[in-house]
Amino acid sequence: MDIERIQLQQHGDSRGMLIALEKDRNVPFEIQRVYYLFATKCDVHRGMHAHRNLNQLAVTVRGSVTFLLDDGSGPCEVVLNDPSQGLLLRRMVWREMYDFTEDCVLMVLADQLYDPADYITDYALFLHEVGTAYRGDMAACQSG
Ligand code: TYD
User: Fold this and answer.
1) Closest Cα to atom 21, ligand 1: which residue?
2) Is residue 21 within 8 Å of residue 27, measured between CB atoms?
3) Whose C-alpha in 69, 86, 108, 124 is 20 to 30 A from the C-alpha of 22?
């Protein structure tokens, strides 16, 4: 699958750094919700679901986390550890997150409000809905 990273412009001066996230300027959707994960235990796996309709942009404001992404063409690992990089998580992409560093603050922007009915939490059902069979390797990753 194509891994879509968005390089976010940094506004820096002698005081430090600032990054702005703006609808249609560097965030390719209308932002309806922002949430963030922090104080995540290092041995924890989160996510393990896909969304039928939701699009998201993930940014590690601090620290590092590893994503496993799969659009049905096979799993792909992505390390996110740069506050000036966004990772686009489009609809119908299975995602898991692990290897959180102790200091990790993972911020997620979303184009819809929280809706538990939008989740697919069964990987076999996800594969069925995207209409593919499990490949079981990481050969299909492409960084964009
Ligand atoms: P959960 O979906 O389990 O997080 P993750 O998939 O990242 O591991 O969410 C944890 C809890 O937070 C769960 O009780 C639902 C709640 N929650 C909200 O209330 N609003 C939100 O926007 C999100 C993402 C979760």
Assistant:
1) 114
2) yes
3) 69
- The tokens for 43 are 């041995």
Q: Judge contact between 63 and 81, C-beta under 8 A.
A: yes
Query: In a mutational test of the pocket of ligand 1, which residue from 32, 33, 34, 35 has the highest number of ligand atoms less than 8 Å from its CB?
Result: 35
- pTM for the full predicted model: 0.93
What is the per-residue pLDDT across 23-50, written as a single tens digit (0 to 9) for each? 999 999 999 999 999 999 989 999 999 9
Residue 5 structure tokens: 């990273």
**pLDDT over 90 percentage in the chain:** 89
Q: Whose CA is nearest to atom 3 of ligand 1?
A: 47
Mean pLDDT, the chain, as a whole number? 94
DSSP 129: H
Q: Spell out the alpha helix ranges (H) of 1-144.
A: 123-130
* SS3 of residue 144 by DSSP: coil
Point out the ligand 1 atom lying closest to the alpha carbon of residue 108.
24
Spatial contact of 77 and 138, defined as CB atoms under 8 Å apart: yes
